[in-house]
TrEMBL record:
GO terms for molecular function: ATP binding; ATP hydrolysis activity; branched-chain amino acid transmembrane transporter activity. It comes from the Bacteria. This is ABC transporter ATP-binding protein. GO terms for biological process: L-amino acid transport. The keyword Flavoprotein does not apply. The chain holds residues 14 to 249 of 287 of the full protein. Keywords: Amino-acid transport, ATP-binding, Cell membrane, Membrane, Nucleotide-binding, Transport. Belongs to the ABC transporter superfamily. It comes from Ramlibacter henchirensis. Residues 7-235 form the ABC transporter domain.
Length: 236
């Protein structure tokens, strides 16, 4: 069932100890696919970590009008799941075992049905369900990480650079998966450095530079904007 979650953020600040990284951010992730672009070190990962409760945050974060909890397990229980940069799978466990770990908060009676649904949505993983995750290619591992997150049927899925280090064909496949998930009713908030391809699949985009949002808009318009063309796409 489509749930169409809407994340609304106002005055968000976060950092590491006394070191501020994000300052007073305001943005939204509406139903669909929202991408946050920006250079290395802009604070993109920090933003997802703050929303996921891995580091403290200040400001207002509303999911469908309700305050997002501050502790990670409560955030996950509330339907917000992060696929971290670097995937963080259990390499010595099989694909299926990794998916089962994605169901830790799913009631036991629903777990096997959820995993069955995810294997139906990711047929490539069904073929590989007995393979050790650590022996898969980078793209396949990224797919497992996304599938693992989907086991808990999140309302909001956060993806941290899903295309990082992947071959172009796999980049396209992972971004198509993100699009498909957004179309099936899970709101997706994705951080990417692959500007052109990310804007081609996203509905809306934001540009984060040095901890501040400097541009935003519908993905198609943003792709044609001066800031994106000159700074990120190398305007011809
Ligand atoms: P990248 O794509 O390189 O991961 P990013 O936009 O995701 O870039 P962040 O990882 O969020 O950037 O880093 C933002 C800033 O926070 C950087 O200046 C970084 O050095 C700093 N930072 C990140 N992690 C920590 C940490 N654990 N302790 C202190 N500072 C950190």
């Amino acid at each position: 069932a489509a749930r169409r979650a809407h994340l609304k953020v106002r005055g968000l600040s976060a950092g590491y100890g006394a070191f501020p990284v994000l300052r007073d951010l305001a943005f939204e992730a509406r139903p669909g696919l929202t991408v946050i672009l920006g250079p290395n070190g802009a604070g993109k990962t920090t933003l997802l970590r703050a929303l996921n409760g891995l580091i403290p945050r200040k400001g207002e974060v509303l999911l469908d009008g309700d305050d997002l909890p501050e502790k990670t397990h409560e955030i996950v229980r509330g339907g917000v799941v992060l696929v971290p940069e670097g995937r963080q799978l259990f390499p010595q466990l099989t694909v299926l075992e990794n998916l089962e770990l994605g169901g830790w908060l799913v009631p036991k009676s629903e777990r096997s049905a959820r995993i069955e649904q995810v294997l139906a949505d990711f047929p490539k993983l069904r073929e590989r369900s007995g393979q050790l995750a650590g022996t898969m290619s980078g793209g396949e591992q990224q797919m497992v990480a996304v599938a693992r997150a989907m086991v808990s049927s999140p309302r909001l899925l956060m993806l941290d650079e899903p295309s990082l280090g992947l071959a172009p064909r796999m980049v396209d496949e992972l971004l198509a998966i993100a699009r498909r998930i957004a179309d099936s009713g899970t709101t997706v908030l994705m951080v990417e450095q692959n500007v052109k391809k990310a804007l081609a699949v996203a509905d809306r985009g934001y540009v984060l530079e040095r901890g501040t949002l400097v541009a935003s808009g519908p993905a198609k318009l943003l792709a044609r904007s001066t800031v994106i063309r000159e700074t990120y796409l190398g305007a011809q």
